Amino acid sequence: MEDLKLECKCGEVTGVVSNVKPGCGNRLVCYCEDCRNFAKHFNKADDILNEFGGTEIYQIDPSRMRIYHGIENISCLRFSDKGLYRWYASCCQTPIGNTVGLNLPFVGLIHSFVASDQCIDSKIGPVIGSVYTEHAIGTPSDELKAGKSKTRLLFTILRKLFIWKIFGKGSPNPFFHKDGKPIVEPSLVSRNKI
Ligand SMILES: [Zn+2]
Ligand SMILES: [Zn+2]
Q: Which domain of life is it from (predicted)?
């Protein structure tokens, strides 16, 4: 078991996902438009998105994740009142990840917040599949869409969420207080302004 180091681009915000091994989370590519909008909002489409507009995300249970330093630099936005909480490091506008709330115990970490000076593939394994491929830009090759089929991937994701929920892995959660309130008030960002 190893730790996955987390770091924003400027190094002000650091953290860790502890005791990772391949298969303990879901490493996938999301092609949904809001993940794309999130990267574009910070003018980081080139850094974050793959050539088909996908964002690599690593879903893990919140209890594994700690912020060591720079929590005061963590900010949050949403694209609608009911949208995902999308977290970022305001010091250098690095996307961190997305969450729903305490009731759904997961963090979708964006690769931009995973420190690059470590062997990520051996720590967390390869990308296991893609979601929302129907919203990809252009035509992702079969190779790119390789991995688990949609149904199997959905089953894998739901199974993990269920296990994390029943074993109380949603807490402690670096982004929410115990009463469910986010650690910072999210700002509402209009998709039209991106
Ligand atoms: Zn930073
Ligand atoms: Zn998405």
A: Bacteria
pLDDT digits (tens, 9 = 90+) for 113-135: 999 999 999 999 999 999 998 89
Nearest residue to 8 via CA among 121, 64, 88, 118 = 88
Q: What is the pLDDT of residues 37-81, one digit of tens each?
A: 999 999 999 999 999 999 999 999 999 999 999 999 999 999 999
2-193 has which fold? 2.170.150
Element (H, E) at 28: strand 26-30
Distance 74 CA to ligand 1 centre (A): 9
* CA 72–ligand 1 middle distance (angstroms): 11
How much distance in Å is there from the Cα of 112 to the middle of ligand 2? 14
Query: Which residue ranges make up each domain of the chain?
Result: 2-193
Can you give the length of the chain in residues? 194
Question: How remote is the CA of residue 45 from the centroid of ligand 1, in Å?
Answer: 17
